[in-house]
Amino acid sequence: MKKLTVGAQVAKKIRKGIQLLDAGDFPESLEMETVVELQDQSGQLLGTAYLSQQNKGIGWYIGTGKRKLDSVFYHNLFQAAKSKRRAYFEDSHTTAFRIFNQDGDGFGGLSIDLYGDFALFSWYNAFVYSQKETIVAAFQSVYPELAGGYEKIRFKGLDYESAHLFGQEAPANFTILENGVSYQVFLNDGLMTGIFLDQHQVRGSLVDGLAAGKSVLNMFSYTAAFSVAAAMGGAVETRSVDLAKRSRELSQAHFVANHIDLEQHFFHVMDVFEYFKYAQKKGLGFDVIVIDPPSFARNKKQTFSVVKDYHKLVSQALTILNPKGVLITSTNASNLSIEKFKAQIEKGFAGIPHKYLATYRLPSDFAVNQSDESSNYLKVFTIQVEK
Ligand code: SAH
Questions:
Q1: Domain CATH for 41
Q2: Do residue 42 and residue 167 come from a single domain?
Q3: Where does 47-194 have alpha helices with state H?
């Protein structure tokens, strides 16, 4: 195995527990797609890493000592990750959740989600992808009970992004359960699946009382999963707003899966800022407003970035929030710290009295690397205005 010497700062970072390696950690040009031994400047072994270009970073530290990436290594990783999630496997009201999460489970560059009887693999770089046969065989030895698997390609260079991987094929779409609510999902249509599993606690809060008897506005709704959760939790009316044309049909499918009458549930295919204007003009008001934008968004007129512009969503939402109403503010931007996110929200409130009712970060199935704050990318606040 090739040995690479890293500088003092990098050795310190690795000893602290950070597993993601940056291009800046290695000044010389590197041979990529390979496993290396890292040592500090005094020649002391730091551990094993692999190098591969990905969206963020150029590789992952995978543990102390000399590690061999063979089927035993992967089997043990998957077994440990499975044991950690026993409570999820035992809960018959939830059949979709994350069963392996990158560095939080000791191996960055790979995540695996469970959707009922099927596994969904996400490969984040060419190196993990090249290990696919060994990884899938080890996975199947830990999960013999699963019917089949699919894969998503989350790095550049291949001519496909989604495919069937092993075992039986899943129906084109089928329903999973979460907190007792049904959602319609699809495993082989682009990178999306119809639901973002990392929000299950927030949806759970809507099912469990936050939305009871309330009118709910869901901004950037995608398939309206928050609206369905709210409806199942007793919301009297939901409105879901998303630019994507396909969102309407996919949203209705979630409602139909739960046998909910669509009469009091509305879908608006439009820009959220246009909807704010429309609602202000009509004098509409909502008891709960969910705001969950993508990190960057572009429409014909403007670009939007959560880092700079989140406050605008908050101030707009406040103009159509009913007295004592609740905002659910969410972001998955890993480049926005929780402090800066809060600062954006406070700027939007501009002194209007409010209190924070709850904070959500990634749920425990999305295991995070405790030493690396940026791996816990999800930040959600439930906030109530005081008047
Ligand atoms: N809240 C959703 C996930 C949102 S994903 C959920 O819980 O499932 C981001 C969504 O924002 C995408 O569906 C995209 O179509 C939509 N979007 C992006 N820019 C928008 C805009 N300006 N107005 C309305 N929707 C927008």
A1: 2.30.130.10
A2: no
A3: 71-84, 86-90, 126-130, 132-142
Dump pLDDT digits (tens) for 10-21. Answer: 999 999 999 999
- Per the prediction, the chain carries an average pLDDT of 96
Q: Which two tokens stand for residue 75?
A: 């089997």
Between CA 279 and CA 288, with CA 284 as vertex, the angle to 5 degrees is 100
| Global pTM value | 0.97
How many residues are present in the chain? 387
* Gap from CA of 294 to ligand 1 centroid (Å): 6
Q: Is the CB of 303 under 6 A from ligand 1?
A: no
Q: How crowded is residue 207: how many other Cβ atoms within 10 Å of its Cβ?
A: 22
CATH number for the domain harbouring residue 303: 3.40.50.150
Of 63, 86, 112, the position where a domain reaches its end is: 63
Asked if residue 28 has pLDDT above 80, the reply is no
Q: Is the same domain home to 279 and 139?
A: no
Please give the average per-residue pLDDT across 225-244, as a whole number.
98
Angle of CA points 237, 95, 200, to nearest 5°: 45
Residue 222 CB–ligand 1 contact under 6 Å? yes
Domain for residue 187, yes or no?
no
d(CA 174, CA 198): 19
Given a contact cutoff of 8 angstroms between Cβ atoms, the answer to whether 327 and 383 are in contact is yes
The range of the structural domain enclosing residue 126 comes to 71-174
Same domain, 153 and 218: no
Buried b (16+ CB within 10 A) or exposed e, 101-114: bbbbbbbbbbbbbb
User: Does residue 122 share a domain with residue 33?
Assistant: no
- d(C-alpha 100, C-alpha 221), whole Å: 26
In this predicted model, what pLDDT tens digit does every residue of 318-334 receive, in sequence order?
999 999 999 999 999 99
| Mean pLDDT in residue range 170-196 | 98
How far, in Å, CA of 292 to CA of 248, rounded? 17
Q: Are residues 19 and 123 in the same domain?
A: no
CB distance 269 to ligand 1 below 6 Å:
no
Pocket test for ligand 1, best of 217, 221, 238, 242 (most atoms within 8 A of CB): 242
Evaluate whether 187 touches 150 at the Cβ level (below 8 Å).
Answer: yes
